Amino acid sequence: MKRRVFLGSLAGSALLACGCNKPGSSATLDGGATGRIRIAVIPKGTTHEFWKSVHAGAVKASRELGVEIVWKGPMKEDDLRAQIELVQSFVAQRVSGIVLAPLSDKALVGSVRSAHDAGIPVVVFDSDLQSDLPTSFVATDNVAAGRLAGEHMSKLLGGQGKVVLLRYQEGSASTANREKGFLEAIRATPGIELVSDNQYAGATTETAFSTSESLLVAKKAASGGVQGVFAPNESSTFGMLLALRKAGLAGKVRFVGFDASEKLVQALREGHLDAVVLQAPMNMGYLAVKTLHQKLTDQKFEKRVDTGAVLATKDNLDTPAVRELVAPDLKTWLGE
């Protein structure tokens, strides 16, 4: 369902409720007048666990740096119109700067140009933009992370088998790069056959489940037509997991996913998911806000910041480094 964002109302109390140095605090709309740095943080969506961790990292940075952040994004990760309107609204409000995870690597270019022309710097995070206007890009090296998934899949299959890549959504640069890295690794293994790489999960678990179910049937997974599956984000991973479980194939078809949630961690423990590539979303939110602050205060900053990725399996799930990524401390920063 498409959700229209009314620009006039964004300047009112509904948006104020989302402003935060800590949850529940209101944001002043005249950040420039008060002399306080005010940063808008616009994620791709607000429902997935990944974005909650990004939010926590942004709040952590805002408290350390003494700046104000306003967290506001589309509810669903396919509401491109809402995200464009949010950027335009924050430009009109003359925020100090914008931290943006663009839903499209092309469609947000015009909005970022408007911010640039207004003297409002933009740090892009998570997913790249086809523009040299952003101040910095803060993200996982997604090609390398996808390659990590492909190499692990090859290892799981012993270099032999039929593999499916369930893509996420057209226009999403981050997942496209993960898919690219995965394909590079798979194609470097002669004994592995790629039987599908042109199906898209869509923005929700529901659409991912529907696509996955149809894909498994079409490729005769139940009769040995598929030995391995890769999904490149949280919602596509969970949708595929549900489809594998429904088909009685969970734990039989090798499965590598991306990102984590409580349900995906449980699936790892049960053996229904062989591995997930973990980003560091809290660190991503933290570094994106920090980098923009460095720009705004005339400090040195990096044009490209790699926030890292780790492969999580059942064997290393309870190590401190992995636990920190799968179960971040959200309560301290978000009160939840």
Please explain how this structure is put together:
- The structure is a single chain.
- This protein has 336 residues and is α/β, with parallel strands linked by helices.
- It has helices at 7-10, 13-16, 31-34, 49-65, 80-92, 109-117, 142-156, 173-187, 205-218, 234-246, 262-270, 281-296, 320-326, 331-334; strands spanning 19-20, 38-42, 68-71, 97-100, 122-125, 136-139, 161-167, 192-200, 228-230, 254-258, 275-278, 304-306, 310-312.
- The protein folds into two domains: 7-139 and 280-306, Response regulator (Rossmann fold, 3-Layer(aba) Sandwich); 142-278, Rossmann fold (3-Layer(aba) Sandwich).
- The protein has 14 helices and 13 strands.
- The strands form two sheets. The chain has a seven-stranded mixed β-sheet, sandwiched between helices. A six-stranded mixed β-sheet has the order 8-7-9-10-11-13, with helices on both faces.
- Strand 4 (97-100), helix 6 and strand 5 (122-125) form a beta-alpha-beta unit.
- Helix 4 (49-65) packs parallel to helix 12, helix 5 (80-92) packs parallel to helix 6 (109-117) and helix 9 (205-218) crosses helix 10.
- It starts with 6 loop residues before the first helix and ends with a helix.
- Mean pLDDT is 90; it is low at 1-33.
